[in-house]
Q: What sequence folds into this?
């Protein structure tokens, strides 16, 4: 195929008479050279080869002007094959010898664009070819537009799917947030009810003791001393509750700054252990402490913590363990050094936590059935909630495993500082 102006539509002239081919070429170059590129073939076989090569090269033939009577492959046969393989090609049939029946057969079998009798009228032939080229170009434009519309439609469908998925995700998140808000509203309602009760109870008791002392019901130095100690205990409990409520307010508002320092948690826990051991022994509870280091450790488990707040975490976890462990029971504190984290595990042999309560024990003022087994007074239900908030502020996590009647283990994991 020639390289003549490759961006122009191709008109292929097919005739076994070379004089006819040259005549057609001169006519089309003179009249349509600005609009089309002209190719010649002296047989049906050669024409078919040109059309196939052009299709493979991305230069399809637009119009084929073909003689009806040719040796070998006839014009009718060529048009039928081209119509099967390349239905977009506009076929113009030239004939001066074939009968009308042959022409009708070609028309019936193929999508013949136009029939032109020999000898042709130049103006009529040029007009026919110009219209055929315009028809081919229009179809190509429509096909490109359809393809573009299909691509746009596909892109639109993709966007709709993405937006639908995004809306479904947002809807799911909104539903989850609504459920969380409802849950928090219930937590706050219970929190305020419990706070009201826990503030009123010690105050009512203290007022009762004072009325008895003022009214002379409580007499004698020993009795007065006894009730003064009871009032002192009630007021200390009240002071602890108020302190915890202030902690809650600071934690929820984000106004509790952390004084982060690099600390050897193994050494830090060792210093705390003596006090905890004494507290446990005073209640008849066995206390054990151990530190498990990984291979290559040099005896230190470095972490970044606010030591004051971390002491509050451990105190709250220990208070919880002691409060739910009977005399003769056991509490065990273990540190485990992992490659990137340090795990602090505190286990007790206490009453355990029912499965239904394990997701609720870190909620503010949650007491559940375990409040009935608290030894040494009423639990405020705030210690574990405060502990979890402080742990999460340190980039840590806290998990709980428990079996009713066998005990509970809290596992606190925080990032480790590598040496």
A:
């Amino acid at each position: 195929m020639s390289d003549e102006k490759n961006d122009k539509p191709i008109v292929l002239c097919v005739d076994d008479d070379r004089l006819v081919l040259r005549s057609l070429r001169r006519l089309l170059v003179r009249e349509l050279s600005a609009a089309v590129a002209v190719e010649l073939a002296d047989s049906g076989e050669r024409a078919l080869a040109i059309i196939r090569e052009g299709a493979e090269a991305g230069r399809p033939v637009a119009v084929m002007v073909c003689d009806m009577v040719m040796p070998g492959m006839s014009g009718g046969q060529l048009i039928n094959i081209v119509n099967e393989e390349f239905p977009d090609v506009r076929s113009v049939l030239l004939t001066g010898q074939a009968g009308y029946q042959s022409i009708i057969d070609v028309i019936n079998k193929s999508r013949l664009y136009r029939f032109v009798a020999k000898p042709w009228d130049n103006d009529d032939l040029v007009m026919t070819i110009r219209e055929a080229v315009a028809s081919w170009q229009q179809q190509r434009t429509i096909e490109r537009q359809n393809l573009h519309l299909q691509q746009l439609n596909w892109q639109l469908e993709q966007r709709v799917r993405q937006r639908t998925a995004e809306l479904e995700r947002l809807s799911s998140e909104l539903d989850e947030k609504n459920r969380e808000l409802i849950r928090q509203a219930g937590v706050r309602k219970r929190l305020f009810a419990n706070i009201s009760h826990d503030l009123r109870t010690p105050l009512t008791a203290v007022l009762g003791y004072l009325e008895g002392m003022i009214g002379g019901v409580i007499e004698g130095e020993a009795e007065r001393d006894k009730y003064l100690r009871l009032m002192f205990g009630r007021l200390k409990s009240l002071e602890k509750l108020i302190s915890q409520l202030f902690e809650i307010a600071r934690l929820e508002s984000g106004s509790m700054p952390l004084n982060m320092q690099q600390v050897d948690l193994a050494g830090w826990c060792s210093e705390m252990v003596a006090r905890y051991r004494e507290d446990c022994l005073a209640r008849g509870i066995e206390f054990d402490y151990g530190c498990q280091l990984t291979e290559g450790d040099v005896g230190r488990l470095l972490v970044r913590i606010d030591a004051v707040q971390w002491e509050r975490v451990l105190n709250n976890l220990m208070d919880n363990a002691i409060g739910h462990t009977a005399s003769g029971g056991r509490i065990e504190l273990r540190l485990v050094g992992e490659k990137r984290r340090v795990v602090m595990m505190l286990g007790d042999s206490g009453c355990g936590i029912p499965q239904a309560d394990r997701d609720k024990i870190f909620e503010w003022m949650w007491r559940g059935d375990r409040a009935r087994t608290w030894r040494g007074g009423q639990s405020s239900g705030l210690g574990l909630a405060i502990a979890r908030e402080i742990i999460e502020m340190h980039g840590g996590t806290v998990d709980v495993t428990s079996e009713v009647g066998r005990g509970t283990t809290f596992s606190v994991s925080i990032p480790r500082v590598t040496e």
